[in-house]
Amino acid sequence: MTEEETTQPSSKSAPANRASEGPFDESEANPVRPYIDLGGIKILPREGLNLRLEVEEQSKRIVAVGLDYADSSLQVQPFAAPRTLGLWHETRMQLVDQVRQQGGRVEEREGPLGKELLAEVPGPASEGSNLHLARFVGVDGPRWFLRGVIGGAAASAPEAAAKVEDLFRSIVVVRGGSPMPPRDLIPLKMPATPGSA
Predict the structure, then answer these.
(1) Half-sphere exposure of 152 (CA within 13 A, CB side)
(2) 23 preceded by cis ω (within 30°)?
(3) Distance between terminal CA atoms of the chain?
(4) What integer pLDDT is reported at residue 128 of this predicted model?
(5) Taking CA 196 as the corner, what is the angle to CA 147 and CA 184, rounded to the nearest 5 degrees?
(6) Which terminus has fewer CB within 10 Å in the chain: N or C?
């Protein structure tokens, strides 16, 4: 960790060209593009993209969006964030602790989206105790934070990684105007009807 980060742990972390290249704030998105509206985020459909909604058992609320693309998986979650402070620095530190507690290995590195974590995490017991490679990425936007977990080919293969990074950057975050505590998940919803997406 650099000294600058130690003294500025809550500054925003995002690619310099985020406003023009994404992930986008709703105010920056192209209004004529045919997005799939999932409430807190909008996804641009593309050939070969499969979408899954991850639902919490007890509350039945959607807690993440899973995207299968280019032999890879991308799980995304949008969170409310303060106007001036970012969440990615603190979130990365928490993820490092979590991965290590689960018996995994993790390293921080500079990626195309800024600082990211490359982790080897234990898989589910049903798959044996093999370690799976995963990349944790995050971007701080205006009043929101978008977190992604990349698995499959894009965790290590450059060509698949570029496709999944492009997918992540095409996402639009819809923060909404209502007050929300920082770190609260921005509500996600089912798309209107499969045919109209």
Answers:
(1) 17
(2) yes
(3) 43
(4) 62
(5) 25
(6) N
Identity of residue 158: P
H or E segment to which residue 18 belongs:
helix 18-21
Order across the sheet with 144-152: list the strands.
50-55, 62-69, 72-80, 144-152, 131-141, 114-122, 105-111
Whose tokens are 């989206």? That residue is 113
Q: Could you read off the pLDDT of 90-100 as tens digits, one per residue? A: 999 999 999 99
The Cα 181–Cα 178 span in angstroms is 10
169's tokens: 């950057």
User: What is the rounded CA–CA span in Å between residue 145 and residue 155?
Assistant: 21
- Using CA atoms, how far apart are residues 14 and 188, in angstroms rounded to an integer? 22
Q: What is the DSSP string of 89-157?
A: HHHHHHHHHHHHHTT-EEEEEEETTEEEEEEEEE--GGGTT-EEEEEEEEEEETTEEEEEEEEEGGGT-
Stated pTM of the model = 0.89
